[in-house]
Amino acid sequence: MMPSPSPLTLHERIVAIRKTLPPSIRLIAVSKFIPVEMMRQAYAAGVRDFGESRVQEAIPKMADLKDFQDITWHFIGHLQSNKAKLAIEHFDWIHSVDSLSLAEQLNRLVVSVQESPKLCLQVKIVPDPNKFGWSASDLRLALPTLQTCSNLQWRGLMTLLPTGLTEHQALDVFRQTQQLAMELTTATQGLLSLSELSMGMSNDYPLAVQAGATMVRLGRCLFGDRPQP
């Protein structure tokens, strides 16, 4: 388990964590409820990827930070169907495609924008009633339909761990996620090229990196305890 953030400044925490990550790992700063001023500080420390989980909160931030043209915006929360159009219009990545109905809706909506966001399928390797996402078996069954969603850019899998896992169990879930991505890419002969693995948060990201994560989503260990909205 990762300790609570030290008295280091935000800039110092970002630099310290970046040094622990391989250069190929994309560090996504989870900025839900984080004020724009702190996001500007994170940008000054080198962060270029920000993760938001509420469309209605993210859009004003995007407007406030429009002077930073090289920011990549990631949607990482549960995407409600009535927010899907706004999400594809504003985000570069959507990590949380968690159902076939959502995938099909995005495939219809994306024709109205210049380019599809890059997408990850959210999976639950371990059953968890508190999390959205596909089981591995349901995702396998959905592959033929997902391959017909030809307007979409599938890039990888995203997973969230259930609470209460040991480090050994957490590492096993991350490794199973990596294996599932490889299996599905092979099964579709690369039509679903799932090379990106969005997994690992403040408490467990070193284990996710060990298991092959390409993107980690870090909030508390960068910004400290999240302020209330």
Q: How much helix, percentage-wise, in residues?
A: 25-40%
How many strand units? 8
Taking pLDDT < 50 over at least 5 consecutive residues as the criterion, the unreliable ranges are none
- Write the CATH architecture name: Alpha-Beta Barrel
Beta-strand portion reads: 15-25%
Distance between the termini: 26 Å
Q: Reading side by side through the largest sheet, how are the strands ordered?
A: 7-6-5-4-3-2-1-8
Shape: globular
* Number of domain units: 1
Overall average residue pLDDT = 94
Compressed to H and E, one letter per element, the order equals HEHEHEHEHEHEHEHEH
Q: Please state the CA-atom Rg, rounded to the nearest Å.
A: 17 Å
Top CATH class: Alpha Beta
CATH T-level topology: TIM Barrel
**CATH superfamily, please?**
Alanine racemase
- Helix/strand-derived category reads alpha/beta
Tally of helical runs = 9
Largest sheet: 8 strands, parallel
